[in-house]
UniProtKB/TrEMBL annotation:
<comment type="function">
    <text>Hydrolyzes dipeptides containing N-terminal aspartate residues.</text>
</comment>
<dbReference type="InterPro" id="IPR029062">
    <property type="entry name" value="Class_I_gatase-like"/>
</dbReference>
<dbReference type="GO" id="GO:0005737">
    <property type="term" value="C:cytoplasm"/>
</dbReference>
<dbReference type="GO" id="GO:0008236">
    <property type="term" value="F:serine-type peptidase activity"/>
</dbReference>
<protein>
    <recommendedName>
        <fullName>dipeptidase E</fullName>
        <ecNumber>3.4.13.21</ecNumber>
    </recommendedName>
</protein>
<dbReference type="GO" id="GO:0006508">
    <property type="term" value="P:proteolysis"/>
</dbReference>
<dbReference type="Pfam" id="PF03575">
    <property type="entry name" value="Peptidase_S51"/>
</dbReference>
<dbReference type="InterPro" id="IPR005320">
    <property type="entry name" value="Peptidase_S51"/>
</dbReference>
<dbReference type="GO" id="GO:0016805">
    <property type="term" value="F:dipeptidase activity"/>
</dbReference>
<keyword id="KW-0645">Protease</keyword>
<keyword id="KW-0720">Serine protease</keyword>
<keyword id="KW-0963">Cytoplasm</keyword>
<keyword id="KW-0378">Hydrolase</keyword>
<comment type="similarity">
    <text>Belongs to the peptidase S51 family.</text>
</comment>
<keyword id="KW-0224">Dipeptidase</keyword>
Length: 240
């Protein structure tokens, strides 16, 4: 049985809330339950790592946690191996995954989360890389990772920032739903959980619950998309 303890956020920022505020209770519950005092932050999805750490430090310091930027550590793999919790922030998913591969962090993070059971928190791009692949990210491929395969902490994909069709919009391009369904036309496509802003997936071992403040939309291959209410049990998605 997996020891994973994972909190996957659609976004760090939600309208009407401060940075990470909407998920503060879930974050604190996860970290306090594991007696965490220091969080290793992975800022590679953005180019200015120091500024990103400063932004993350503000709420975490208020909650009583120290934040250490992995980019400040001489040996990143060793930093992961010694971490008590990991937070991977948002930005560009391609940039983030490439850096994780470049620094040999993919296997290191996967082992710490799945085998050692340390808490993993992801937001946006940090949520994308926690899944099977980054095929369903909304980001532009500004760099090229060696593979679209991600950390595989869960056996399906997620689409953070999922948007519904606006019937009053004059934009006639493809909707997010159409894009995901196009992805699932491929033979090797996975299930996709569309997380709207403010929706969060919490995974503990072989249990998965939708949390947060908004519903999600689930896309299972060869099935009609369905709405998922906050509090719903999605544990069956963890069966590979």
């Amino acid at each position: 049985m997996s020891k994973r303890q994972i909190l996957l956020l659609s976004s760090s920022k939600v309208h009407g809330y401060e940075f990470l505020e909407y998920a503060s209770q879930d974050i604190n519950d996860l970290l306090s339950r594991n007696n965490v005092s220091s969080v290793l932050f992975v800022p590679y999805a953005l180019s200015n790592h120091d500024e990103y750490v400063k932004r993350v430090e503000k709420p975490f310091k208020q909650w009583g946690y120290k934040v250490v930027g992995i980019h400040t550590q001489e040996h990143p793999v060793q930093a992961v191996n010694q971490a008590k919790a990991i937070f991977v922030g948002g930005g560009n998913t391609f940039r983030l995954l490439k850096k994780l591969y470049d620094l040999d962090l993919v296997k290191a993070i996967r082992k710490r989360v799945l085998e050692d059971g340390i808490p993993y928190i992801g937001a946006s791009a940090g949520t994308n890389v926690a899944t099977r692949s980054i095929n369903t990210t909304n980001d532009m491929p500004i760099v090229y990772p060696p593979s679209f395969d991600a950390l595989k902490l869960v056996p399906f994909n997620i689409n953070p920032h999922y948007l519904d069709l606006d019937p009053d919009s004059k934009h006639k391009g493809e909707t997010r739903e159409e894009r995901i369904l196009q992805y699932q036309e491929e033979e090797d496509a996975f299930t996709v959980l569309g997380l709207r802003e403010g929706s969060t997936l919490y995974v503990e071992g072989n249990s998965a619950i939708l949390k947060g403040i908004h519903r999600a939309r689930l896309f299972e291959k060869n099935k009609d998309p369905v709405e998922i209410d906050v509090g719903s049990d999605l544990s069956y998605l963890l069966k590979e």
